[in-house]
TrEMBL record:
Species assigned in the record: Naganishia liquefaciens
GO molecular function per UniProt: oxysterol binding
Protein's UniProt name: Oxysterol-binding protein
SUPFAM superfamilies linked to this entry: Oxysterol-binding protein-like
Basic and acidic residues bias locations: 307-331
Annotated region (Disordered), positions in chain: 307-333
Family annotation (PANTHER family): OXYSTEROL-BINDING PROTEIN HOMOLOG 4-RELATED, OXYSTEROL-BINDING PROTEIN-RELATED
Amino acid sequence: MAEQEGTDVVPTEQKAGWSSFIKSLASMTGDLSSMTAPPFILSPTSLTEFPAYWGERPELFADIATGKTEQDRMEKVLRWFICTLKGQYTTRNEKMGSEKKPLNPVLGEEFFGVWPDVGYGETTLTVEQVSHHPPITAYFIQNQKAGVTLQGHSGQKTSFSGGSINVKQNGHATLTASLPGGKRETYLITLPRLQIQGLVWGSPYIELADSTAIVGDTGYIATIDYKGKGWVSGKAHSYKAVLSHGSKSIRSYEGQWTSIGTVAKSNEVFTDATVPKQEVQVKPIEQQGEWESRRLWAATAQGIRSGDYESASRDKSRIENEQRQRRKDEAAAGQPWQLKYFEHVDSDPVYKQLAAQVKGIPSEEDAYIFRGRA
């Protein structure tokens, strides 16, 4: 969406509100997640749906365990990860013209989806909002036939500086590949930092910043550096990845995570993000449970899509007020919230083992372990 930079898309009737919002951002200190955005910048999608972006290239996800060697499998993990970034960070709101502020999930909100078997196995998704303060979303993705699973959690801490919103993503993901003969390989995946730019024109878009790592228990490590315009290829959404084993660098890759990336110093295509993504399939709203995202936020989402922001705001406030009252009632009754599909652990042993191989990231993190669905 970077191509919209410089385009003024703020509706005329919203210009005053948008100007006030930008001024409020500039004066805020600390986390911005509780700020109320102008209606036209709201997304009709809840944050609980966002883990689905990990699965929109199910053919690459399923292909990971087919690698013949440890290096081959690490490259397949790296390829899959980079090819999910476009869906996660630049195309999720293309139908609405620019990046939008997602709906803040309520505690216990759920999202379930599936990518049907079209030759490489069915891939399923389970998401649960496991915390409201701070907001944390836990997810589990599995292709049982391929023997590949991904589990993780994410939260966001936002701040404003230099005319952009900076989003630090908290959490991590762990990918496991089950190989013939019973062997299993595990990969730790850290999350990128985001910069939401284009705010001045009311046409926000996302750029990735800093670096992330994929750490395998086989000793292979991939580090990915992200930069915007003027770096590597001089284009937006650029990346450079280096694969190493121990102290030895083996290969590097570079390009754009929104289009094509190649093996460095060659024309060999390594990543192709132009392949159409496969959106997750969900049950019709009338068949969903009351805590499932699309049923819970149906009226709010309809109001946003139709431009009836008064109706959307009214329903959004109703849901949020009911959530606050529910938490008060539970606190008064001494009943702590019980997670349905995940179990919280204060220290993730897999993270602790693999994070020790990478400088600059915390040595320990908590985690939410998937315990299955009845």
